[in-house]
């Protein structure tokens, strides 16, 4: 959960940038005409990312955008990168490779500024890799579109803006239920949250609500009675009994403390 | 469940035909050198199907194979097609389109012979479409690799060799958890069983066990506290709270009466 600070908007990738822009509109409304830092650092080839967001946010009336890109970790150690965050009302992490975000900005003045903006009530949004990196431990690699082999999962320390959860994205589109269950099996203390494309969760305090066209899957392992995750052979297919699963869609809400969904009000 | 009759071997498609042939070997062992009817009726273009199985089963020492194919439903109404089943120890339904099986042989002498072989203790196996058609109500069409829209599901009456369940196949490979949950949401009386490729369940009485390289997903909706499946808009994404989910892998077993998994014995 997020104990203090501003809202997190965690997006499963490929959010609508041309139509109604439901999710980006939510980000823009939270930034309230202030300055938004668009961190394209997840990408190995960032060309085009910033322009696409400048256009989309511009159409939503948000013009104060600055780009944070980092070619080498060394650049984040000086004052220039951190200075970009002065006066920022929000930060938006774009997609790419979540390990590139954590390895380039982890434990640097840039990361400190991200936390400061957040603690002072600013919105921190992230899509795709930018969603994964929000959690304490993040999924880096694992099987998609096949059932989970117990040895086939790679995790790494994330930014930890939200705790006790693990986030996966492009969820239904890439058939990732198996790998998220594998991650939860490793330690059911973490709640698995799988977010579809063009879908977001907006986390405020210990609650979030769902926004967008797809679904959000919650994998709760607290009542699991059996799993073979600690078995010797990495080739073994995951076995896991008594998982509690919720599928949430737009306007559904979820209480992270009680691990309990709250249904959408009927239209 | 299967109240009486021989075992059902229900396969998620693409079972190994060249290597160890774990699943086909199980079928061959159950047929015990007797006659196996290979029903290629699910396919619109059956050429090659029978040859592939003749080769694979031949390598397993099973040579008494006959093919059942039906170009038109009228062919199944005469005595010739039914005569193929005389003396059969087993039936194997190959892949294709499950609606082609049910529409061509449903309520014909061929279907009666399938039931007779089964009731007399013969094995009935089916892969892919041949797996789906085993249940009372079968999934025909629904979204893969996206979350389930409540209007986007087509079901049809199947052969009903196993009751109170709905079977889906190519499960992890085609990202079908969403559509199976949608089917279960429609009536949680049915238990959802999603079977991966090269994976099978062997049903005997009210129990089954898992065989093969992938996983089997059990979607139990009996404790669901909320779903929006009966809402007006077919475009709405499925929302479903408190699903009980089990992932089973090789040697895991499941009790269909108690809706309860039984873990594999440790190696």
Automatic annotation (TrEMBL), chains A, B:
It comes from the Bacteria. It is an enzyme of class 3 (hydrolase). The keyword Electron transport does not apply. Its EC number is 3.4.15.6. The keyword Hydrolase applies. Belongs to the peptidase S51 family. GO terms for biological process: proteolysis. Exopeptidase that catalyzes the hydrolytic cleavage of multi-L-arginyl-poly-L-aspartic acid (cyanophycin; a water-insoluble reserve polymer) into aspartate-arginine dipeptides. It catalyses: [L-4-(L-arginin-2-N-yl)aspartate](n) + H2O = [L-4-(L-arginin-2-N-yl)aspartate](n-1) + L-4-(L-arginin-2-N-yl)aspartate. One of its GO terms (molecular function) is carboxypeptidase activity. InterPro entries: Class_I_gatase-like (IPR029062), Peptidase_S51 (IPR005320), Peptidase_S51_cyanophycinase (IPR011811). This is Cyanophycinase. The active site is at 128 (charge relay system), 170 (charge relay system), 197 (charge relay system). Keywords: Carboxypeptidase, Hydrolase, Protease, Serine protease.
